[in-house]
């Protein structure tokens, strides 16, 4: 295949350190698998507000559109919390999702045996966790019409609207069904069909789409029940597919079950460039001190190789090296426990490279 | 005070057994505290569909309006899952909330030391859980305008709308602040203000209302973060106040942390009659066999004494008796473990009465 180009968006806080470490791992993994890629660095979030006055400069969008994949650190921080709403750092995230048409957010949530003890759940419950959450990322109440607080007939009120169309549901459920093949073949579609019209449409379309996948078993679950089952019986889930808002809540709930939120990657996919980022935030309080855990970003780079660079070999190589580094006892500050080897962000990256 | 009258709505599935047990406990507790009440039984849910053709007969609404309080078992079951949407059993619940103006759902989530071992969480995390979730129950996306799936410009789509007005937010936040006094004095207001206009109104109004409560410390949290913190650090929460939809999800998530969902009560309050019900469902699979746990309903009756019958003495009496019954080793099937005394629904009620 022709030469690949990726965009790195370090973002804010620990973003610079973790993307630097992940880039080095990615370059080493590419080389070892006989390939290579070029990259350019672009700004988004607070860093872009400071430099360009806006959180998502056109230049960044353009570069991302042309690239084969985007690796993002994290955006946001207290110094940008009080800017005007349309300039807030998270607009960069929402903007990128829309501009790049990233309609599917994939979050694999698995437990690293070496870290299972750090889960808030009992060992016997957490050991079986291996969930892929597929969150719709380009629609729903995130992008519906809104009425900011304003006085109507003497009463101050605000309004948001949740909208879903058949094609939006079809494409995300199809993606979830495809992802289930090669896993346990089970898809749980999560909605609130006993209350919401959008959920009733969602449920109907999901059932229709699943008919096309004879290897996939689809079931439906209410979001409140799912929030319970994730804690009670997380090992029962395989693939979960759900709306933008429910996915936001459930994927964060599911993430903490693993006990290793600093290690969890994500991929946001559409018809063009894919975007890859760890699920944790920009942690401004520990930025610049080498304390950040780069493994979530490194595993995001693995997803980038798999889904955007067609280099499954490099993806597997990285994933196995991360597992090995943990088994060998290396820990950044966030997951450190007595008896293990404490390493910096950079050193953790080097230890992964040494095991590729 | 004049003579009190309550309405009992057994509902479906195990509803009949658990309300029968709770009624006997309530009568005994009233007598022991030198009071009494009259009651009448009304239908709602599947039972009402079978008898009246609709899930919430006018007669039931009228009786509830006139009563001092309503004790409900649970509604719904598979035999009513395929009736027309407007006849579904949960319409009874949503209808009662609206007809009685029940704008506040209170769910105390505490851990019974005798049952803490049944929590999916590690003991050291679960032991500190003592949360009161205050969910807005009369507004938001539950009651906003909806467009059922229909073809618009050739595309099938559906729409729901979330609406909140200042008075709606004011009254629920005020109630949460009042509830926090006498607890730890901390209120966490949960929203998605980085995305939703309704959440931005909610956050602004909540901050204003909290100013009137100098003993209360208000903080704001995003719903996705709250879904994480409930699992990671549930002991850090005191009172949580949130919207109808977020409350639906978070209160069920929080409920399972305790390990004793069969014991959790709830109160739904408005300006008139209050409604009290356990948080679990109608469990049709075990109905009529004496297997159901009546303690959630019995503790709901305690809340009824406290909030609707001004009989705090009876409330405390019931709560202490339930704790004692558990400490004495009595268990219904759902919470039974070897070494304990297994009792039926009815017998569990009698054991509580014996300890009043
Ligand atoms: C920053 C915020 C708008 C975003 C979201 O709600 O989608 C975040 O919580 C996430 O999940 O990526
Ligand atoms: C039955 C359903 C409509 C209801 C709700 O969503 O409010 C239930 O989940 C609850 O929490 O009482």
UniProtKB/TrEMBL annotation, chains A, B:
Domain of life of the source: Bacteria
Pathway membership, UniProt: Amino-acid biosynthesis; L-leucine biosynthesis; L-leucine from 3-methyl-2-oxobutanoate: step 3/4
Cofactor binding annotation: Binds 1 Mg(2+) or Mn(2+) ion per subunit.
Broad enzyme group: oxidoreductase
EC number: 1.1.1.85
Residues reported in the UniProt entry to bind substrate: 97, 107, 135, 224
Catalytic activity: (2R,3S)-3-isopropylmalate + NAD(+) = 4-methyl-2-oxopentanoate + CO2 + NADH
Cofactor(s) demanded: Mn(2+); Mg(2+)
Subunit organization: Homodimer.
Purpose of the protein: Catalyzes the oxidation of 3-carboxy-2-hydroxy-4-methylpentanoate (3-isopropylmalate) to 3-carboxy-4-methyl-2-oxopentanoate. The product decarboxylates to 4-methyl-2 oxopentanoate.
Protein name: 3-isopropylmalate dehydrogenase
Species for this entry: Sporomusa termitida
Gene designation per UniProt: leuB
